[in-house]
Write a structure and sequence with these properties.
Blueprint: H1 16-42, H2 49-56, H3 60-66, H4 68-79, H5 93-131
Helix pairs in contact: 1-2
């Protein structure tokens, strides 16, 4: 039998490329978060972890890990600036009639679909019965 000659580990792991990619990703995330926050402030929208994550296309975990204090402070500042919530307007009889008609139409469509699917199911059961399954 041949014995393998053990050679000392002479190669060095090159991780510079990985570090550069990580740094680029991190910088890109920070820039997107900054732009998203600026846009939310400009549009006078709510600033919270959900809206910033959605606008900047980063995860909420990233925001909690890296931007927690900033977003939390902005959210607290914004609490005093919020306008009162919109009052739900009352429904008129006409709007109620339209809503009921819309729901009735949808119910009829769904009933027709259920009937069609029941027919298909009966045929399948018949085919399976004929095959002896």
């Amino acid at each position: 039998m041949l014995k393998e000659i053990e050679q000392p580990n002479t190669w060095i792991r090159n991780t510079e490329g990985l570090k550069l990619a990580r740094d680029r990703r991190s910088k890109s995330c920070e820039e997107r978060v900054d732009k998203a926050i600026q846009q939310l402030i400009k549009d006078k929208e709510k600033i919270n972890f959900n809206t910033v994550a959605e606008k900047s296309s980063v995860s909420k975990k990233y925001l909690y890990d890296h931007q927690y204090d900033r977003i939390n402070d902005l959210r607290k500042q914004q609490e005093g600036l919020q306008s009162p919530k919109q009052v739900k307007r009352e429904m008129t009889n006409e709007s109620k009639d339209v809503l009921i008609a819309s729901k009735n139409k949808r119910i009829k469509e769904l009933e027709a679909e259920v009937k069609k699917l029941q027919g298909i199911l009966k045929r399948r059961y018949g085919e399976d019965y004929d095959k002896g399954i």
